[in-house]
Each structure stands twice: as C-alpha cells, then as structure tokens.
UniProtKB/TrEMBL annotation:
This is N-acetylglucosamine-1-phosphodiester alpha-N-acetylglucosaminidase. GO terms for biological process: secretion of lysosomal enzymes. The chain crosses the membrane at residues 431-455. Residues 309-320 form the EGF-like domain. CDD domains: EGF_Lam. PANTHER family: N-ACETYLGLUCOSAMINE-1-PHOSPHODIESTER ALPHA-N-ACETYLGLUCOSAMINIDASE. Gene3D superfamilies: Tie2 ligand-binding domain superfamily. Keywords: Disulfide bond, EGF-like domain, Membrane, Repeat, Signal, Transmembrane, Transmembrane helix. InterPro entries: EGF, LE_dom, NAGPA. Residues 1-16 form the signal peptide.
C-alpha cells in the first residue's frame, strides 16, 4: 500500500434522485466552508466535444502545466459521461440536477467548499471549481463515513451496494484540506477485493494526516496520481490484452499548476513564472506587450522594434538621428538623387531641388525667357533691350547688342533702380530719352578712347556697331551691369518662392 499526500488546492462532488434531491430547504443540506491558501493555481479539467470525455491524466500536464494531477469525479465507464456536478474554471461542465453526493470545490471568493451542494448553489455562479465524489469521509475533523453512506446515492458508483462500496478494499483517491486551508490530494494503491483500504481505514488515515474535511473520489482502476507528467502510482487496471497495469482514461482531473500569466503566453515575449511574466529584453512587464522604447529612442525619426530602430525615409543611423547625406535619399538613404542642375534632392522622396535658373522634375530645363530664380517662378522685369539673368533676374546688356540697345537697357535700369518718377509717363519718357542719348554719347566717347588706347584689341564687331570692347566670352555673353531688374528682386533668397500666378496678378 502506498499513499502520497500533496498540499495543494482543489475542490468538488453529486447524488441520487430517490435519496434526496437537494435544495435549500432540504434537511440534508450540509456544507463546510474554509478559506484556502492560494499558493498555486487549481483546475478541474474535463475534456472534449461532449464534455467529460475521458482522457489519460498524464497527458494533461503538457497542456495545462499541471505539476500534480489526480483523477477526480465518478463517470460512466461506458461512455465517459460525468456523474455529479462539474464546474471547471467557473463554467458548469456537468449539472447533476440536484443529485446529492458529497462535493468538493473552490469558491470564487476564496473558500474551500466541502459537502452537499444544492442546485441553487451550483447555479449561483459562486463556484470556481466543483467536483462530486461518493462519501464525505471527514467532516469538521470527525469521521463521517457512517453518516454519509446513508445520505448519499449508491447509483453513482459501480461497485455495488453502499455497504459493499464502503467496506471493500480497493485503490482509493480522496481530496480534502487541513485546518490551515491547504488542499490535499490522497491516493492509495490497491485492487478491488484484493488489496488497498476500505473507507473506514481511509477515514482513520486522513485523520492521522490532520485533515479536517475530505471526500472520497473515484477509486479502483481510476485511482491515478501524476506528478510532473509521470504516473507515480500503480493503477490496477490491466492494459488491453496485457497482464501489466495501465492507467485508465478518466473524465475529470484535478490539476495543480503554477498560477497562469495573463495572457498565458506573455504575448510571446516572455516566460511565465509563478503567474508573472519574465519579459525578454526590451519588453515591458507586466504583460510583455509593450516595447521599452520611448520616442527618443529613434529620435522621433523612426519606429522602435525589438531589433532596433527602423528609420523613416530620409534618416539613418542606429537612433535615426542622421539625415541622408546630400545626393542620397529614401529608406536607409540608399537611393541616389537623379537630378541635373540641383543642390541635391529631398531626403525623403527624392524630389530634386533645382539650382536657381533651372526647372523640371530633374532640373533639366533652363528657365523660359522672361523668368528667373528658384524653380523659374519669378518674372523678369527687364525690357527687350536687356538680357535677364535666369539666376539672379538682373537686367543685363547682351554682348551682341548695339550701343543704342545697351544704352536703352542701362537707362531703363537706372530709372527702375532709382525708382524715379513713378507715375508720370511723360517724365519717364523724357528721362528715358535723356539717359539713352547720354548713354550713346558716353558709349561713343568710351569707344573712341578705347580704340585710341588699345588699337590692337580683339574685336567682335558687327556692321551696325560702333562700339567694340574687349570682353571675355562666356556662355551667355553679356556685360555685367549688376542692376537688379526682377520683380521682387529685393526679397530674393534661396528659401523663397513666389508662385507665378501671384506675380502675374500683381
Ligand atoms: C467543528 O468542530 C469544532 C471543534 O472541533 C467546533 O467547535 C465547531 O463548532 C465545529 N463546526 C461545525 C460547523 O460543526
Ligand atoms: C460505523 O458503523 C458501524 C456499524 O454499522 C460501526 O461498527 C462502526 O464502529 C462505525 N464507525 C464509526 C467511526 O462510527
Ligand atoms: C516537478 O518539477 C519541478 C521543476 O520542473 C521540480 O521543482 C519539482 O521538484 C518536481 N516535483 C516532483 C515531485 O518531482
Ligand atoms: C524563456 O525560456 C526559454 C527556454 O527555457 C529561455 O531560453 C529564455 O531565455 C527565457 N527567456 C527569458 C526572458 O527568461
Ligand atoms: C530605448 O532606450 C533605452 C534607454 O536608452 C534602452 O535601454 C532601450 O534598450 C531602448 N529600446 C530599444 C527597443 O532599443
Ligand atoms: C516631397 O517632399 C517634400 C517635402 O516634404 C514635399 O514638399 C513634396 O511635395 C514631396 N513631393 C512628392 C512628389 O511627394
Ligand atoms: C518696358 O516694356 C514694356 C512692354 O514690354 C513697356 O510697357 C514699358 O513702358 C517699358 N519700360 C520702359 C522703361 O521702357
Ligand atoms: C544676341 O545674342 C543672343 C544669344 O546670346 C541672341 O538670342 C540674340 O538674338 C542676339 N541679338 C542680336 C541682336 O543679334
């Protein structure tokens, strides 16, 4: 004979219609409530499609992390149907409809229930775990077998009359609690009519163990104790067609496990230990569902992942603090700008930033005549006689222009620059004419002087030109007069663009 005692936590129990359907008024209503010590999680499991399908106990630990499991309630050995009430994790898995047998359970408010349970009690939703046995062995520290065998229903067990059931030696399982509220599983090996103990002996044994309340669970071939996934007793049933013994599939199992975490898998970012998630690096307790990552981890320029920052396009570096180098853009700054006349491109989307005087999606176009500046959005204010610099918008003289044209341009610029005679058109014309004549005279004098002084100069003269000046030929040959001539020229800057529409309106 071997027995094992385990201090843990658990519950349950049910009975016969004739012997007494239990209700709140029933004279047999007896119960014992004791607060329990909550060190571990407990569970009553019942299985499957049809509730209370049979299962091998040793299979359970893997699924439910039980470190101790014992067979529990009675069941129909033909179809696996549970007998008695079964409430598992607050859910009614089997309702005995008031059949009265001893039950053991845990209530939601932290008490151990032992005794006869009314239908009202089953439906009250106060039970967390509840399972039925046959025979209330110990009640309030006193042997209760002689009393309970007359109260309970013998239909629930398949051994025979209640007297035979109580007196037969057999393998036994029981669940109870001590005075401190520790739940205890007791399992004794045996074989019906051959070896084991009867319930009076069980009563004495449990008293010796200091138990206060205990009920008898299913015994015989069902009596099985599993610790850490291994069956530790010697079940009495022979295996199919074999001489050695095998554990039987049972329909309800009491399971003790470490408290579960919420969620049980710690969001896959940690391990559950005694009900608490031990999170992986960078994941935050209590649930390991949030990364330890403040906004500053990625400099506000990226998103945090367990592997590090993933920078938004335009940024790179471990903490995304670096902008793309000039000439590069996009995700991880791996794309090269595709621009012709630019000062680089947008680090995020690669839009070309054109140099002043150029336009087009790749800055491949010069400004159209009459426009200048950033993205050619500015309108030149130069008259036909002047050349408008597409970069600065300055009105300049064409290298190939005649002296008269050049003087005209010069005159106009002076008028504009000095902001002379704003509205007086006559005055303007007078000035314009005067300046042009003066310009021509000055130009002629200068030309004569230069001709005299530098007879050997290289000239590019045209038939209609009097003036011949030695000049450096540039791409756009012109004399630099450096007179601001564009609209809004005084507010030109790299950072500023003025839409063409607003210019043309003004
Ligand atoms: C349980 O037994 C103790 C003495 O051992 C007694 O004082 C107490 O009243 C009993 N409780 C019930 C509910 O019978
Ligand atoms: C139980 O009842 C039997 C007789 O039916 C008696 O011999 C026995 O002493 C009783 N046991 C207890 C613990 O009262
Ligand atoms: C069950 O396993 C745990 C560790 O996995 C161990 O601490 C414990 O002692 C084992 N229990 C028994 C009864 O072997
Ligand atoms: C979780 O458990 C696994 C396997 O035991 C181990 O490799 C891992 O390091 C553990 N993780 C943490 C965060 O403790
Ligand atoms: C965020 O920054 C903190 C403090 O610098 C660091 O400990 C943590 O590992 C960082 N998180 C990630 C996800 O890299
Ligand atoms: C590219 O980004 C710049 C700056 O954020 C924005 O002004 C521009 O409209 C974007 N271009 C495209 C094509 O999305
Ligand atoms: C410049 O040309 C415009 C027309 O192109 C003309 O209306 C304006 O009077 C001219 N300004 C001067 C100063 O000649
Ligand atoms: C002066 O040269 C420019 C190009 O540099 C040309 O567009 C313009 O027609 C020329 N003007 C004259 C009067 O030849």
């Amino acid at each position: 004979m071997s027995f094992i005692i385990l201090f843990i936590f658990l519950f349950n129990f049910a009975f016969c219609d004739e012997a007494g359907i239990l209700n709140a008024q029933n004279q047999f209503l007896e119960e014992s409530l004791t607060p329990y010590i909550h060190k571990h999680g407990s569970r009553l499991t019942h299985r499957s499609i049809r509730e209370c399908h049979e299962e091998k106990i040793w299979l359970l630990p893997k699924k439910e992390n039980c470190f101790v499991a014992i067979n529990a309630g009675y069941f129909n050995t033909n179809d696996g149907e549970c007998l008695g009430n079964v409430i598992s994790d607050g859910r009614i898995a089997h309702d005995s409809k008031g059949i009265q047998n001893s039950h053991f359970g845990l209530t939601k408010d932290g008490q151990i229930f032992t005794g006869y349970v009314s239908e009202e009690n089953v439906l009250s939703e106060n039970m967390l775990q509840l399972v039925g046995g046959v025979i209330w062995i110990l009640r309030n520290g006193t042997g209760f077998v002689n009393t309970s065998k007359n109260l309970e229903c013998e239909k629930t067990e398949e051994t025979g009359s209640m007297d035979r059931f109580v007196n037969i030696v057999s393998a036994r399982s029981a669940v109870g609690h001590d005075k401190d509220g520790n739940v205890v599983f007791i399992q004794v090996d045996g074989k019906s009519d051959v070896d084991g103990i009867n319930l009076y002996e069980m009563e004495t044994l449990l008293q010796e163990f200091g138990l206060v309340n205990a009920i008898n669970l299913d015994g015989g071939g069902s009596s099985t104790l599993v610790i850490n996934g291994t069956t530790v007793n010697y079940p009495s049933d022979a295996c199919d067609g074999q001489t050695y013994a095998c554990d039987r599939k049972v329909s309800t199992i009491l399971c003790v496990h470490h408290p579960y975490c919420n969620p049980r898998d710690c969001n896959k970012h940690g391990n559950c230990s005694m009900g608490e998630c031990i999170c992986e690096m960078n994941w935050l307790p209590p649930n390991c569902d949030q990364l330890f990552c403040s906004k500053t981890n990625c400099s506000n320029n990226g998103i945090c992942t367990p592997e590090g920052c993933v920078c938004y396009p335009g940024f790179f570096g471990e903490d995304c603090s670096e902008s793309c180098l000039n000439g590069w853009y996009g995700s991880m700054c791996t794309k090269q700008c595709e621009c012709y006349n630019s000062v680089g491109c947008d680090p995020v989307n690669g839009t070309c930033k054109c140099k002043n005087g150029f336009m087009g999606d790749k800055c491949q176009h010069n400004c159209p005549t009459g426009f200048f500046g950033k993205n050619c959005l500015f309108m030149c204010r130069c008259n036909n006689s002047c050349y408008c610099d597409p970069v600065t918008g300055m009105c300049e003289i064409y290298a190939n222009s005649s002296l008269y044209t050049a003087a005209k341009c010069l005159a106009m610029n002076i008028i504009l620059e000095e902001d002379l005679i704003k509205n007086n058109i006559d005055e303007q014309r007078k000035w314009y004419l005067t300046m042009t004549i003066l310009g021509v005279i000055t130009g002629s004098c200068l030309a004569s002087f230069i001709l005299l002084m530098f007879c050997s100069c290289t000239c590019h003269c045209r038939n209609d030109q009097i003036l011949c000046i030695k000049t450096e030929r540039k791409h756009n040959p012109k004399y630099r007069l450096q007179v601001p001539g564009g609209y809004l020229s005084d507010s030109l800057s790299d950072s500023e663009t003025v839409p063409m529409q607003s210019l043309t309106k003004s």
